[in-house]
Write a structure and sequence with these properties.
The protein is of the alpha/beta class. It is 42% helix and 16% strand. Strands 4-3-2-1-5-6 form a six-stranded mixed sheet, sandwiched between helices.
Length: 210
Amino acid sequence: MVLIIDTETTGLRGIPEDRVLEIGITEYDGDSGNISPVYSEIIRYDDIVEFDSKYVNPDGSRRIWIYRNSDMRVEDTLNAAKDLDTVVREVREIVSGKEVTSYNVGFDFGKFLYQEPWNIRNMVTRKIDIMKLATTKVYELADSDSIEDKGLQERLLREREDSPYPEKWVRSQDAYRVLCPDNPMRLGNQTHRALDDAIMEGWILKALTE
């Protein structure tokens, strides 16, 4: 059994400049193939209005990205049932002694969950990054003209060619559409929330494992 963790954060820089706003955890059972929700919480920050009003993204845009690009709102953070200390304690209890992973381990773990106050590095065994496995497999399929959705295949190859980076990582939604063409979770307009993403990443891991 592997726990898949997804975080929604204020930005991409990591702690201490950024905060985890929401965390979702699912469990993938490799024996049964089941993907089960385990945990989902928005974290309450009483100072989030002031934080949001002063936040500047690396591209110069203002206000927290997740509030502008999902259905999460500042009011959700203000009215959340649990504060940071409570969520940290519950998450640490869930993951202690478990195998964990995410879609982009360097982000979720390296920039956030390995840092204060989460500090889960020495509590868990980390599995290989789902994103790295998915990227290798998706481009293998694209290069061999094996992706069913030819429009998606063309876009993925074009984005890789145009990328300024040595390795172009495949977004989780694109990996899901390639590796899970039957759409087992009936993915529609993804709201980019932590638990939804963690479930989707569980399906990606299942497809890769099988």
